[in-house]
Amino acid sequence: MARSYDQYCPVAHALDLVGERWSLLVVRELLEGGPLRYSDLHARLEGCGTNILAARLKTLESGGVVRRRQLDPPAASWVYELTEYGRALRDVLHVLAHWGARSLGPPTSADDLEPGWLSGALRVAIPTTCGDAAIEFRIGDEIASLAGRDVVEAPLETPDAIVTGNPQGFFALLVDRDLDAISIDGDAAAVRRVLETLPTVPAVAAA
Fold first, then answer.
1. Which of 17, 27, 148, 168 has the CA that lies 20 to 30 A from 125?
2. Distance in angstroms (rounded) separating the CA atoms of residues 172 and 107
3. Residue 140 — left, alpha, or beta (φ > 0 → left; ψ -120 to 50 → alpha)?
């Protein structure tokens, strides 16, 4: 049985639902790539044991965060997806990601990043209130684009701007708002407007 804080407090209740280890990472994967089969989730969450994943999914289902459904033929596979209530966690993860990035720091090598990382980073980092900008990102070997509220894993036909750079420059752009860390071809003001929608997190104090 899942442990509970047993407090009448919305923060404690939220942690009862999604505070166990791996729970929010399940939500992250379903936000980025859902609906997903159990095997797909397990493959994405390297290091998460099958018994742990099954337990987390059961808790998330019982809390109304995730649902399991069968795809239509010919696939007919059972998949997990976020409910409307679960999808509302995108804004929570958005703020949490910016908060965590401050102490995490930029990637130090290509080994830190999995293929497809750029589209996932944009989905987590950019809020749904970012406006209608069309911005293409070419970061290292990855290409992904922001098309209004949507993130697509492809270039755009008519982007407002194209952002080019390395992963460290991309980190500096989104965390430090450093436009000099990357190259912008096109409407730099469109990029600035997106940056203005991001949460501001103070730098970590030195120990």
1. 17
2. 11
3. left
The pair of structure tokens assigned to 151 is 């993130």
Mean of pLDDT values over 101-120: 86
Q: Is the pLDDT of residue 1 over 60?
A: no
CA 112 to chain centre: 16
SS3 assignment, position 109: coil
Query: d(Cα 142, Cα 166) in Å, to the nearest integer?
Result: 10
**Six token digits for residue 202:** 């103070």
Beta bridge partners of 136: 145, 162
The whole-angstrom distance between residue 12's C-alpha and the CA centroid of its chain comes to: 23
pLDDT band at 205 (very low <50, low <70, confident <90, very high): confident
* C-alpha span between 153 and 162 (Å, rounded): 14
Task: Give every CB contact of residue 158 below 8 A, 6+ residues apart in sequence.
Answer: 134
CB 144 within 8 A of CB 122: yes
160 DSSP assignment = S
**Among residues of the chain, what percentage have pLDDT more than 90?**
70
Q: What is the DSSP string of 23-85?
A: HHHHHHHHHHH-SB-HHHHHHHSTT--HHHHHHHHHHHHHTTSEEEEEPPTTT--EEEEE-HH
Which pLDDT score is estimated for 111?
Answer: 67
The pTM assigned to this predicted structure is 0.85
pLDDT at 207: 63
